[in-house]
Amino acid sequence: MKEHSLCDEKPYAPGEYDLTSKFHSQLQIAYRDMLPTDFVGFMNYIFSDHDRVVYCLQIILSEYAYEAEVVKLELLLRDGGSGWRVYLAEDDKGESYFDIQERVPPLVQQFANKSLTQNSKLSEAWKYLYSRTPDLEKTVQYCQDVLEGLLRDKYLPNDMKPQLGKLIRSIKESQEIQMQFKGSSLLEDDKILLDLLSKIPKYRGLHTAGTGKTPTKEEAEYVMMTTIYFWNLHNA
Fold this sequence. Notes:
Shape: elongated
Oligomer: single chain
Helix content: 40-55%
Number of strands: 4
Order of helices and strands: EEHHHHEEHHHHH
Strand order of the largest sheet: 1-2
Radius of gyration: 23 Å
Largest sheet: 2 strands, antiparallel
């Protein structure tokens, strides 16, 4: 059962508090530092650095907070214009927990919601992009996996070893393949949207040998949003 209390009242000092031994030990391991045990000293230590605040909040949300408290916190963060938001995450075992990630504009979140709930790879890519410690290479790598699977399954189902760059070239050069997605009848060239994907294969995720590149935050966001756009068009 989730332990709720983070502090205990000092036996001989009513109104003053110490961190519980479990919470204090957990924080010392997480921060690799000696933290004060008293609540006031702990708060002074945490609020002296922005990253400490976010990290501490992440620990509390994942292991100590209840839903009603999380809802209140999210309202405070949202109404205060915070760059962070609280959301319900899921671990590899399918167990839910609360976490914190970078806040994106509501329209962007709404645009992404369907794909993130229905495609686990895209959901993981999103987490890597907007987490407290982003991994931009994995964001691009997971998006490439989604695009490769989508293009292969839809247009080249017999390709046993799909590679994004090869798939794009094969579809664009084929006279037999006609792309089918929401709104494709409005385009004179139904394959023109593949140009949006043409440079993504250069970002090889963890493999940056040769002509591979490591993505910037803006480039990773482009890959993420373009992948979601393509997924939405094909799953409307």
